[in-house]
User: What shape does this take?
Amino acid sequence: MNGLTARLGAASAFALRPLSLRRMLILVLRYWYVLRGSWPRLLDLAYWPTVQMILWGFITQFLAVKTSYVAQAFGVLLSGVLLWDVLFRAQLGVSISFFEDVWARNLGHLFVSPLRPGEMAGALMLMSLLRTLLGVVPAAVLAAVFFGFSLLSLGLSLVAFFACLLVMGWALGLLICGIVLRWGQGAESLAWALIFAFAPVSGVYYPISILPHWLQHVAWALPSAYVFTGMRSILVDHVVHLDLMAAAAALDLVYLSLGAAVFLACFHVARRRGLLLQTGE
Assistant: This one.
C-alpha cells in the first residue's frame, strides 16, 4: 500500500512539473517533417474542403434554377446517393481488402506461395463485389421502407448501372493498391480521397450541363457521368438510353485495363526493391 501511494505521489509530481515549450516545439517539428515528407498527407489537408465546396456549389447552383426538379422526379437524389455508394464501396472494397494484408505485414507471406498478382487482383475484385452488396442492399431496402422508393423502379437498367459503377470502382481500387505498393502506407488516404474527386464531375445530383463547358469534357470521359445521366433520363423522362450504357461499358474496359496495368507494374517494382516485405511509410 505504501508502495502504491509512493508511485501515485511520484506520478502526481511528474504531472505537475512545468511544461516545456521547447519539448513541445521539438515534437511539433517532428510531426511537421512527417507531414512535409508525405505528399498524400499534404494533399489531404486541402483536398476535402475543396471537393466539398465544388460539389455543393454545383448542387446549389442547379437547384437555384430548377426549384421543382426534385418534386418532378421523386427519388432522383435517393437514386444518386445509392448508386454513388456502389461506386464508393466497390473502390473501397478492393482497397481495404488489400490494406488488411499490408497492415498485417502479410504480403511477403502471400507471395512466397504460388499466388500470382493477377490472382490477387481477381480475389480483391470478388471481395469488393461481396462488400458492395452487403453495404448497398440494406440501404436500398431501408429506402423502400422509410421513403417508399425502390431502386427496382429503374428496371433492368439497374443491373447495367450497378455493373458499370462496380467496374469503375475496381479500376480505381487497383490503381490505389498499386500506388500504396510503390509509395507505402502514407498513400492510404487516397482510398477515401480519390473517389470523391469524381463526384463533382459525375453528375450524381445534377446534370452534366450545369458544369462549366471545359469541365463537361472531363465529365464525359468518366463512365460514372453516363450512368447518372442515364439514371435521371429514366426517372425524369422515362426514357432508356442504351447508348449511354454502351459508352459507360466501353470506358470501363479502358479504366479497368489501366488500373490493372498500374497495379501489376507497381507490384513488379515493389518485388524487385523488396517492398513487399517492408511496406510502410
User: Anything to note?
Assistant: The two ends are 45 Å apart (CA to CA). Residues 242-273 form the longest helix (32 residues). Residues 47-277 form one domain.
